[in-house]
Structure formats: C-alpha cells, structure tokens
Amino acid sequence: MLMIPMAEAQPNLGKNLMNKPAVRLKQTTCPYCGVGCGIDVNVDGQTLTQVNGSSDHPANFGRLCVKGSSVLETNDVSGRLLQPMIGDSVVSWDEAINHVASGFQDVIEKHGPQAVALYVSGQLLTEDYYVANKLMKGYIGSANIDTNSRLCMSSAVAGYKRAFGSDTVPCNYQDLEDTDLLVLVGSNAAWTHPVLFQRMERAKQINPDMKVVVIDPRQSATSELADLHIAIKPGTDVALLNGVVNYLAEQGLLDKNYIEQHTEGFSATLESCQAWTAERVAQYCDIPLEQVSTYYQWFANSPTAITFYCMGVNQSSQGTDKCNAIINCHLASGKVGKVGSGPFSITGQPNAMGGREVGGLANMLAAHMDIENPKHRGNVQTFWRSPRIADKAGAKAVDMFEKVRNGEIKAIWVMATNPAVSLPNGNAIAEALAACPLVVVSDCNLNTDTTEWANVRLPATGWSEKDGTVTNSERRISRQRGIMPPSGEAKHDWQIICEVAQAMGFASGFRFTSPAEIFDEHARLSGYENYGSRDFDISGLAGMSEGEYDRLRPVQWPVNAQYPQGCSRMFEDGRFFTKSGKAQFVGVTAKAPVQITSEEYPLVLNSGRVRDQWHTMTRTGKAAKLTAHIAEPFVAVHPNDAERFSLTDGQVAKVTSAFGQVLLKVKLDSGQRKGELFAPMHWNKQFASQANINKLYAPVVDPISGQPELKHAAVTIEPYAADFYGIAFSRSMIMSDSEYWTKAPNQAGFQMSFAGQGEISDWLDWCQQHSVSQGEWIRVENSSEKSFRVMCYKAQQLEFVCYIQATPFAEDTSWLSEMFMLQQFDREEIKALVAGTPTPEVAKGRQICSCFQVGEKQIIEAIVDYGDDTVEKLGERLKCGTNCGSCKTDLSGLIRANCPAVAV
Ligand SMILES: Nc1nc2c(c(=O)[nH]1)N[C@H]1C(S)=C(S)[C@@H](COP(=O)(O)OP(=O)(O)OC[C@H]3O[C@@H](n4cnc5c(=O)[nH]c(N)nc54)[C@H](O)[C@@H]3O)O[C@H]1N2
Ligand SMILES: Nc1nc2c(c(=O)[nH]1)N[C@H]1C(S)=C(S)[C@@H](COP(=O)(O)OP(=O)(O)OC[C@H]3O[C@@H](n4cnc5c(=O)[nH]c(N)nc54)[C@H](O)[C@@H]3O)O[C@H]1N2
Ligand code: SF4
Ligand SMILES: [Mo]
C-alpha cells in the first residue's frame, strides 16, 4: 500500500533542545477549492505559524493561491459557534443531541420518513458525508438527503452517467500540461482554480504551440490567457458544441475507428448536429464566424484536446445537455482516455468528489451505486445490515426547500452549507426556514444568514481541527488532517451524526470511534459485489490501521487489485461502465434559458465568483488581506447599458427581478456583453444590507440533474436615488442604518461604505453616534458641494475617518484605507485628510497583489514610467505576482491597458 510517511517531520529538532517545544510540520489539504492542494503547516506549540504548499503533493507541487496561503488569517475563533444552542440558550451536548433525535423521530412517527431531510455539503469530509448518507438512506429509510453539490456538480454527474454509464472524470491534472489544445468552457479558472490555472500558464509558456480557447460570455482574468476568447451569448453552448461534431463530419475528420469500436448512438447524434453549420452557429451564438471556424479547425486538427468545464456549463437549465454536447465532441474525435485529452469537469468544492463517492445526492446510493437498481439496493442494505434502504430518489435541493416551505418536510438538518444565501429565490428560502418547525444547523460559525433561522445550532470543528479525507477534481484522495484540538465544545460532523443516530436507536450502524474506521467501511463497500462492474473501487485501501490511514499519501481512485497504486487516467482501454461496455453519444438540442428577458426585465444577470472570496464569506470575509482586492459587492455593466439606464460608475443601483431586489454598486465594464450584467454571489446579510443576488434568481432547474439555472436571471436596473454617499474607516465596529451599506475588515479595523436618502442634519453627530471612537474630532464641511469629512484621532493614531458627499466617489478611495493603517499620524496626514488628497506614500491605488499589498497606481507607474512590460519585470520591481501568482492575469491586463504596443 501507499504509505510513505509525509504527515509528520520535525525540521527543527536540532534547535529545540532547550525545553522549547519543537516546531512540528504537519501536512494537510487546503479547505477551499476542488484543486485540492496539499498544505504544509508549521505548528509551534498550540499555534499554527506558517503555511506553504506541499512540494510533494501532486495537485500543486508546492504552489498555493492567495486563498490557500491566507488560510491562517481566517482560522481564528472569532465568530465561531463554540457550544450547542437551542434557540438562544447554550445547552449541553446531551440535551442538543436528544432534542434533535427526538425531534426527527416525532416527525417520522407522525408523518413518515419523507417528512424529514438532510441538506449537506461538498465541504464535509468523506467520512462525515458517508455517515450522513448511511443514516438517511439505510436507517431513516428516505433519500431526502441532498447537498449543495446539486447547485454545483449535478449536471456534470448526470452528463458523465449518460455517456459513460458511471460518474467518472477520465482526466488528470498532468493532462492539462500535456495537451495541444485547452478549451475552457464556462470557467474562470484564473480566479476559481488558480493553481491549475498556473499550471496551464506554465504549460503554454513551455509549449508556445499550445492553444487556449475560452468560451465565456464575458471577459475575465481567464480570457487573458486565451488565444481565442469566444464571448458567446449565454446559454447557447450546445449549439456551438454540436457544430464541432458537424464540422468533424463535414471535413472527414471523425475518428471512425473509435466511434465504431467504443461508442454507440453516433448516427442519431450526428443527425441532431447536422443543422449546426459554422454560419448558423455564429448567428445563433451571436459571435463572429471566424471565431467559430478557428475553434472548429483547432479542435478537429489538434492531436489532443481537453475541454475543461465548470459552472458556466453546469448551472444551466440544460446543463446536463451541455455536458453531453462536450463529451460528444471528444467521442467523435476519439479524444478520450488518452494523454492530454478528454472532457474534464472541474469540481468546485474541496470534497465535491467525495460526496459523489458516498452517494450524497438524493438520486444516488453509496459507492456509485444506483438507487433505482434493486441489486445495488440489496448490496448496500446487506453490507450495512441496515433495517431498511431508500428505494426511490429523494427531493433535490430546490424541491427540498419547496417541500419545506409547503410543509411536506417538517424537520431539516443543514450541515456545512448556507442555503439562505446560496439557493435561488432567496426570499422563498427564508420563508421556508421560517416556517419549518425544526431547523437544525451544524456550522462552525455562530451567525450566518442560515443560522438565523435555526432552532438548534450544533458547533462543528473547522479546518485544522477536522480530520478525514477529501477527493479532488482528478479523483485524488488526500488526507485533511486534524492538527489542532476542537475549538470550544465543537465536535466533528461525523461524531455529531453518529450521536444523533445512536440516540434515534440506530446504535449498531454508527459505533465509529474514528474517521479511519469510517473510511475503512467506505473502502470495503466500494469493493463489495463489485467485480469490475463499478468505477468507484477503493477496496485496495481497506484494512489500513489507524497509523496507515494517518500516513495515507494522495492517491487517485480506483485503488484495487488491478490498480494497487491508483489510476491516473480512466478509459484508456476504451471500455466503459455501460451495459454494452461502449460509451453513449447523446444527441442534444440547443434550448433557450428558461429565465428569459422581457420588456419589464430586459437584462440578463450572470453571477459567479471573485478572486479572493469564498462563497458566503464565512471564512474569507474575516481576512483583511482578502477583502482588500474587492471590498464591496458590485454589478458589472457595459458602458452602453449604463448610458441606456442612466447609470454612472460607482453609483448604487437597484437591480430587480420578478422575485426580489438588491442594491449593488455599478462597475462599468466593457468586457461585458451588451444587455448582460454580472454580479458576485458572495455578499450576504452579514456583510451588506441588500446584496444577496440569489433573491433575483427563479427556482428554475435542469430537468435531468435538478441543478438550478444560476447564471441567467431576467432583471432590470435603475439608479438608486441616494442623497448621500459615505465611506468610513474605524478601529472599532461602525454601525449603519442607511439603506445601502457594506462592511469589511481592514488591517487596522473596519471599513464601511454606505449610501442613503434624506437629510442628515449634523454629520459629526451622526459619526459619533455610529462609532465608539474617542479622541479629538474634526469636521470639515463644503456646503456648496454638500461634502463632509469627519475624523477622530488620538495619540498620533487615526481612530476614525468618514468622507460623505452627495455623489458617488468617482476617484479611487483606497488611499484612505492606506492612510488609516499608518502607524505615525501627524499634521501632514491630517492636512491631507482635510484636503482630500493622498500623501505620496499612501497613493498606491486599488489593491492588485494581495500577498505584497501592491496597488494599481504603483503598477501603472512601473509600466508607464519605467517601461516594465512583462509580469516578470513588474515582479522584480514591486514583488507583485511573485508569491501565489493569483494576480498575474490582472498584471498582464494592466500591462495591456497601459502599454498598447505590448501583446501579452
Ligand atoms: N475565488 C473562489 N474560487 C472558487 C470558489 C469561490 O467561491 N471563490 N468556489 C469554488 C466552487 S464551489 C466552484 S463551483 C467553482 C466555480 O468556478 P467557475 O465555474 O470557474 O466560476 P464562476 O465564476 O461561477 O463561473 C464561471 C464562468 O461561467 C461564465 N458563464 C456564465 N454563463 C455562461 C454560459 O452560458 N456559457 C458559458 N460558456 N459560460 C458562462 C461566467 O461568465 C463565469 O465567468 O469555483 C471554486 N473556486
Ligand atoms: N447565484 C449563484 N448562486 C450560487 C452559485 C453561483 O455561481 N451563482 N454557486 C453555487 C455553488 S457552485 C455552490 S458550491 C454554493 C456554495 O454555497 P454554500 O455552500 O451555501 O456556501 P458556503 O459559504 O461555502 O457555506 C458553507 C457553510 O458551512 C460552514 N462550514 C465550513 N466548514 C464546515 C464544516 O466542516 N462543518 C460544518 N458543519 N460547517 C462548515 C461555513 O461556516 C458556512 O456557513 O453556492 C451556489 N450558489
Ligand atoms: S487553488 Fe487555491 S483555493 Fe484551490 S486548493 Fe489550491 S490553494 Fe486552495
Ligand atoms: Mo460549487
């Protein structure tokens, strides 16, 4: 087996002979994205002192992005839920467990097992996920367990299953470096899978003939790397992809041998593709013909190709069809199961894959077995020796919450996800949680938009405390190790689930005392009655001792008698897990999104991620270093649309759909298509007054996968008629009651942006009321401009500063934040603040490089004044981009914008 010690070493032994505790090195996995980077953590006594990328982890070979390298800054106990609570009262664990168990039992007795539900997450570890699924499907006997992966990966799963007969990701990360053509569809990997993106960038540097195509309606940090960026009309991917198959046929470039020997259903699929000539595609997708032709020529003639796809594909009302359209291109050209080739769906969350393995979705069983298959149901029940087994699919996420809202589900247990923010039709989700008689939430944080509705809050251990395994996008299982003891009274998710199960009378199936025991059962089940019939088989990892489990090295499944060291690429033999052993072509037809625009809602709202925030910000929202990149929620608007809707840059706008309304700051962006807006998904009630964009999305789902259409809402936008705009920095918390506010941590305290209506008679008084700062207060007023500057300082330190004006801040205000962080604050600085002009030392501009806090102005100066025309030269001068590299595409964008002679 694969057990070369890597978990623990003692690098400083020699230096630590003097009674000082040794600095230990622990190896674990990043808690964020599905790249699954290995992290080395230095532990000094009870303190985690430093993190580095694990040089021997095959996902990252030492690299980390800015989120991974800042993980310690988000790991303190502030804001943590540290004790179980019923309502607002702290209770003992016994009381909490019994309350949950009897609450669930009561509902089951009165209304049956379909009246309870578990809503779990791709951020659970495999062991947590395994027992949650076992409790629901094998003991409660309902399949009402679904996960936030429904919002994320379910279309990819359904697409793979239709084509390959199994949920198998064929490729590996090395393939990204070994390919001649990389097509990124609906992925902003530069910001969302940064370490993989760095591997792509490097591969392209080494092999200048490698081509990169980005298919995304908007310009992004990722499209910076593209040789060809196809800004397609959103939702039209199927037409573009069907055109590839048609082109291959037209040009006689099909891989007829492969089609013949290893696939079925080609002729019907070709028929559904034949109408999609390049001309028709160009028209339908609203893109130039030569872009379509170039993509088709490159794909057809390239010896290898990877199509790398993410949420722009999956989060669609025809997400599953989009996935099959991608797979069809690869089958038709024989580009599957070969070095540097394949349809590569990338997972978002750290353990989305682990969740798929244990059957965490409502329509799956454990170990990649099918709920509709009686033999599989028999296998799982016999193996578990469980009293029952769910025999039909349960409610998928969006339906589940609809059933909570209409009272069919009366008890729900939410774990490691924040549905009040992340599910579509947010107002209805709040109604559902408010109406539900029993809402249990297991979380690490005390206050989230979801815990607000909890009857019971259960404190879960977080990263560095929790202990188990995760599986990344390339099927690689890694240990996420418990390094620290649990904070407060927090327990591991698997422990909490097992205790509730035991209290419900299901003791026999849940007597686990360690994650190693659970993993062992999971590994054994994967091999049970398998005989090569199922892709997911890690029976080779069964039977490990606790020590062997702890030392487990990253390994790609399957791990069994055939692949004792794991398997890096699937389907090399052209055999698939379908009945016939052949891959299935699935003919798909292009369909318009369901949430279509109208006269009343004439704009499309696209949504997604920003570089330095993670989901609902419960962790990354704590780190000043991470919030500095983009401190405020925004809506990106094409300048023509801004004109059409009378909007100016930096102004607060009201974005409205048939389902709700939000207030966001306008960001002019000529990289948007006209008629389309983009807004980040991250901000919620903890950080902003009205910025949760999921209030705007309809609960529309893909009919096959049940994945919601989260990239395409129909909205309208109008200026919010603010009478004042303010920006404030304070050492201590600031309160705001204005209609628009957002807040963020700052390296020296807090910052807040606000806007509102009405007349404030005295801004000095207002500032004093809304902060607890003490010291010498100064107020400066320019009554003709209706602008005010209020500040408070004490002992050479600025305690508080607030700028208020009647119009949006057109100028960059990031210097105020720099000013606020100065250690020495004297007359020069006060004068600068009074005058509203930055001193040279703080005029850095908007933060671009989070690792070394390098600002936009500094970078532009280096480009313009010193002629730094490459990312490397900027790095030499300013250090920007030389640590994690996450900002390199921003740097090349700035070079391009400020140095037109340079093609980056
Ligand atoms: N920084 C950061 N990284 C993350 C996360 C995070 O929260 N923050 N979350 C992780 C998770 S869980 C996930 S799922 C991944 C998501 O990773 P990605 O999918 O890369 O990220 P998104 O920003 O959601 O969306 C990707 C792109 O899809 C495009 N798109 C929208 N509609 C269409 C369309 O119709 N067709 C095409 N072709 N493209 C379209 C959008 O314009 C956007 O640029 O990121 C992971 N990594
Ligand atoms: N409009 C729009 N909506 C989207 C998306 C989009 O692109 N656009 N993307 C969707 C996608 S792909 C995803 S993955 C979802 C993500 O959305 P969510 O899953 O709702 O977001 P998170 O902030 O990751 O929520 C995780 C919660 O679990 C807690 N937590 C963290 N670790 C643990 C743990 O170990 N145990 C327990 N018990 N709790 C823990 C955190 O504090 C947090 O409250 O959002 C979806 N929603
Ligand atoms: S790419 Fe960044 S966020 Fe993703 S696993 Fe690696 S370090 Fe973590
Ligand atoms: Mo996701």
Automatic annotation (TrEMBL):
The superkingdom of the source organism is Bacteria
Q: Which SUPFAM superfamilies does the UniProt record give?
A: ADC-like, Formate dehydrogenase/DMSO reductase, domains 1-3
Give the protein family. Belongs to the prokaryotic molybdopterin-containing oxidoreductase family. NasA/NapA/NarB subfamily.
Q: Does the keyword Oxidoreductase apply?
A: yes
> Has the keyword Metal-binding been applied to this entry?
yes
Question: Which UniProt keyword terms apply here?
Answer: 4Fe-4S, Iron, Iron-sulfur, Metal-binding, Molybdenum, Nitrate assimilation, Oxidoreductase
Pfam families hit by this protein: Fer2_BFD, Molybdop_Fe4S4, Molybdopterin, Molydop_binding
Cofactor(s) needed for function: Mo-bis(molybdopterin guanine dinucleotide); [4Fe-4S] cluster
- Tell me the protein's name: Nitrate reductase
Which segments constitute the 4Fe-4S Mo/W bis-MGD-type domain? 23-79
Report the source organism.
Catenovulum sediminis
